[in-house]
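Project outcomes to date are best conveyed with an example. Our students and postdoctoral researchers have been running inverse folding experiments weekly, and each run begins with a structure described purely in tokens. The record below, which covers 93 residues, was selected by the lab manager from last quarter's runs and is presented without edits.
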């Protein structure tokens, strides 16, 4: 991946990196893309699709309601609460 693209992604993500970090990211991205390309070129003809390698069957458990914190207990240490919920600073640009 070119450095300009990495800088652009960092910029829109509001992240800043040193030139050394950007070069390192570029190498890591390129290595990852090469690995994906290699995997994509593997001949899988005749290989049965595998959706899960987990051999233990998934079992469902009964949904049991257990006691938990009350609203007051959960919010007692917050700096600010509103309408019984945590209140945080709105951060949207």
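After processing, the design step wrote out the following sequence:
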């Amino acid at each position: 991946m070119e450095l300009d693209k990495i800088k652009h992604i960092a910029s829109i993500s509001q992240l800043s990196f040193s030139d050394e970090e950007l070069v390192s990211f570029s190498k890591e991205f390129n290595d990852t893309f090469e690995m994906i390309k290699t995997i994509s070129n593997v001949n899988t003809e005749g290989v049965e699709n595998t959706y899960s390698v987990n051999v233990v069957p998934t079992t469902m458990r009964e949904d049991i309601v257990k006691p938990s914190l009350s609203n007051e207990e959960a919010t007692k240490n917050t700096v600010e609460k509103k309408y019984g919920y945590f209140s945080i600073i709105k951060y949207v640009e």
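Residues 19-40 form the longest helix (22 residues). The chain has a mean pLDDT of 89. The training component of this project remains on track.
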